[in-house]
Amino acid sequence: MAPVKITAEVGTRTIEVTVERENGRYVVEVDGHRHDVDARKLEGDFYSLLTAGRSYEVTVECRGDAYHVRHGAAEQAVRLSDPGRKARANTRASGPERVVTLMPGKVVRVLVGPGDAVVAGQGLVVVEAMKMENEIATGRAGRVRSVDVRPGQNVEGGALLAVVE
Amino acid sequence: MRPIGKILVANRGEIAVRVIRACHEMGIRSVAVYSDADRDALHVRFAHEAYALGPPDPASSYLNIERILDVARTCGAEAIHPGYGFLAENARFARACRDAGVTFIGPSPEAMDAVGDKVRAREQMISAGVPVIPGTSPLPEDPAAVATLAAEIGYPVLIKAAAGGGGKGMRVAHGAGDLPSLLAQARGEARSAFGDPTLFLEKRIVRPRHIEVQVLADAYGAVVALGERECSIQRRHQKLVEESPSPAVDADVRAHLQDLATRAVRAVSYENAGTVEFLRDADGRFYFIEVNARLQVEHPVTEMVTGIDLVRSMIEIAGGGRIPVAQDEVELRGHAIECRIVAEDPVRNFLPSPGTIRGLRVPSGPGIRYDDGTYAGWTVPIHYDPMIAKLIAWGRNRREAISRMARALDELRIDGLTTCVPMHRKVMASEAFVRGDLHTEFLEQHPELLVPAADPWLDEIAVVAAAVAHFRRIEARSAAGADSSAPRDRSTWRWDGRAGWRR
Asked: ipTM value of the model?
């Protein structure tokens, strides 16, 4: 297979990466730094990586839009994309804000209604999961355009709770 | 007293597994109960018998007294162990067990009433000569009236649930403006967790250490204190790291604390295992907070340094047996630390992160104990507590225990969930923790421990690993035949996990 070029986002850095296979090993170039890797996929998400005599036992898990790599107790998320693809623009500062819950749970209270004026940081909806109540707040000030849940409703992680404009 | 041949474990998760283990070591038959969300749970697999309780919500399942007692009667269990949480400190349940002729493995309902109502417990401790924190009686409904009381005590004040424990229904108010919303939240939590919305206020001791004494008391009037545990590392007033002994307690202080704890439990004619909790202020003064009338989550650290199996002792005491040691035989050997493994994301303010455990590797080796109720393939339900496991390390001294814990955290892998393992690893390496410089605002004071460290070498390895995994995925796809997957493969970086793809 031909070498694969990708752009990796890790922490605050963006790195150009090339991967290819050579004689059963992987050659990974990270920002021009060459790693000659003997990689074995083991049980579950485990990999054993040997490179220049060093042994790394890692787990690599593809979750959502990132590869989550664990080495020891440390964890790092790596986002990979085609080279040249512009970083996703974050347009949240202006325009309507979709307030979502990151965790699944149950809506216990709705604190605002459509048309209400809200300030940045104000709680809109209270979601309960694992016995904890969490007030989900809006990141921006404005007016509530819609409330998309009602008390008692179960919500998935990522579910839309309300829109503030 | 009937001998105990069969025990129903009225709980779930790691504590149910822990109690079942003690039963099996004692040759006692174990009975699990489970909600519809827990049919596949480990405690059901481990137990000799298992019976369904009902729907997942706790009120219909693990808090359903009538149903649990029905199961006990039908299966012929002579005793019930409540674990912690759920019905563990519910006097009505203990009473219902007694009325049904089933032995409740824990204190009497009278002792539970005496310590369970925090307001009454305070009064009793004051008359027993045990120092307490300044506070109020049950609060009125009106926030304005509460504000007056709070101003008298002086901010910051703690809002606490009268029937509470474990941080449920607890909030900190820094000013009168915070009160209305915090009172509503605390009332809501107290009502759903304990069925009682009654609240009270307490002066907040700034940056205290949380130090508690484990006691055992039997039916023959013996009370034995098993040293202290320090549980100062907390989030939302719930403990995350516990250890025994406390780095702030020497032999003289220990003797003093054990004396206070013994007096506290004698004051309420307490029987079975219990914990007397204290706060220690910066000047070394101790204040009684509460008696926890149950087994504690952090009981393993006491077991590791005393060599006493607390769950076994509870069962023996409930069956009419005696405490296995006298006070002068109690010896704390070495040092033990426990890290609670919770399915929460420390980076996102400990947001609950339930999910499916894709892969699990449990650490082992010298001095390591891992208590859990999970396995690879298990989905952590959203209905219950986020604690999924406890990792305990023992060493000859604190330094060795810390290095073993750090090593074991590096070995532990729980894939598929976000947990606090990376945070624990950083705590073990932090200078302040190693020095023993602990207080309950430790994590707020060291926010750098909650987020991943900038580590260029780890980044490099992570990128290499992700790139290799990505390359293999593309290879596997082209090997599987380009035709069927061609439309998807046109852009190779779009992989299968599209459900979570966000724009």
From this structure: 0.78
Quote the tokens at residue B209: 């250490």
Residues of chain A found within 8 Å of residue B500, distances taken between Cβ atoms? 63-65, 158
pLDDT at B482: 52
Per-residue pLDDT tens digits for B56-87: 999 999 999 999 999 999 999 999 999 999 99
Do the chains contact at A82 and B188, CB–CB below 8 Å? no
Sequence-distant (≥ 6) Cβ neighbours of residue B162 within 8 angstroms: B117, B118, B119, B138, B190, B196, B198, B199, B200
Note whether B463 contacts A33, CB cutoff 8 Å: no
Beta strands B29-35 and A132-137, pairing class: unpaired
Query: Is B413 a known active-site residue?
Result: no
Per-chain mean pLDDT for chain B:
92
Look at A69 and B185 and tell me if their CB atoms are within 8 Å: no
Residue A163: what residue type? V
Contact A8 B463 (CB under 8 A): yes
| Cβ contact B461–A71 (<8 Å) | yes
Examine the pLDDT at B495 and tell me if it is beyond 70: no
User: Residue A133's pLDDT band (boundaries 50, 70, 90)?
Assistant: confident
C-alpha span between A69 and A72 (Å, rounded): 10
Burial status of residue B478 (CB atoms within 10 A of its CB: 0-12, 13-18, 19 or more): middle
| Contacts of range B495-500, beta carbons closer than 8 Å, 24 or more positions apart | B495/A62, B495/B470, B496/A62, B497/A62, B497/A63, B497/A64, B497/A65, B499/A64, B500/A63, B500/A64, B500/A65, B500/A158
Please provide the average confidence, as pLDDT, over all residues in chain A: 87
At B297-346, the pLDDT tens digits run 999 999 999 999 999 999 999 999 999 999 999 999 999 999 999 999 99
Whether B350 and B344 have beta carbons less than 8 Å apart is answered as: yes
Going through B10-67 in order, the beta strands assigned E by DSSP cover 29-35, 49-54
Least Cα separation, residue A112 to chain B (angstroms)? 14
Q: C-alpha B393: how far from its chain's center?
A: 17
Measured between beta carbons, the chain B residues lying within 8 angstroms of A63 are 416, 497, 500
Residues of A in contact with B495 (CB under 8 A): 62
**Pick the catalytic residue: B254, B294, B404, B477?**
B294
Q: Which of B134, B179, B133, B186 is nearest to B162 (CA)?
A: B186
Contact residues, A window 113-152, toward B, CB-based 8 Å cutoff: 123, 126, 128-135
Cβ burial, residue A86 (10 Å; 0-12/13-18/19+): exposed
Kindly determine whether residue A72 and residue B410, on different chains, have CB atoms separated by under 8 Å: yes
Size of interface A-B (CB pairs under 8 A): 191
Distance (Å) from the alpha carbon of B471 to chain A's nearest alpha carbon: 7
